[in-house]
Design a protein that fits this description.
By secondary structure, the chain is an alpha+beta fold. The protein is 50% helix and 15% strand. It has three helices and three strands; from the N terminus they run βααββα. The chain has a three-stranded antiparallel beta sheet with strand order 1-3-2. The chain starts with 17 loop residues before the first strand and ends with a helix.
C-alpha cells in the first residue's frame, strides 16, 4: 500500500547513493545522547526546508519492509543537509540560551 507521503526512489538510483536523516546525523557526529530526538526534530526541519527549496518532498524508500523513509541523495543533497543542519543547530542553541 502506498503512503500519501511516499515518493519512491527512481529505479536507476542505487540505494547506496542515498542517506537517511539518522545516517546523516551519524556522519556529522551529532551527540549520541540526543540522536533520537534530533532524528525526529531535525528530520522534520529538513523535510520542511527541502519542500521550500525544491517545491517537492524528498524521495522515499522502504527499509526492511518498513517505511516509507525519507532519503536524500548523496553527495548532491548532502550539501543541502549540511547547510540545513547548521541552521537548525544555531536555532536550537538560541533556544537553549533564551
Amino acid at each position: 500500500m502506498k503512503d500519501s507521503n511516499e515518493r519512491p526512489l527512481p529505479s536507476d538510483v542505487p540505494v547506496e547513493d542515498t542517506l537517511t536523516i539518522s545516517e546523516f546525523l551519524h556522519s556529522v557526529h551529532h551527540p549520541q545522547e540526543d540522536m533520537t530526538r534530533a532524528t525526529i526534530r531535525f528530520g522534520q526541519y529538513a523535510f520542511n526546508q527541502y519542500r521550500k527549496t525544491y517545491g517537492r518532498p524528498p524521495y522515499t524508500r522502504r527499509i526492511n519492509g518498513n517505511g516509507p523513509v525519507k532519503v536524500y541523495l548523496d553527495p548532491i543533497e548532502y550539501i543541502f543537509l549540511s547547510h540545513t543542519y547548521n541552521q537548525w543547530r544555531r536555532r536550537q542553541q538560541g533556544k537553549e540560551h533564551a
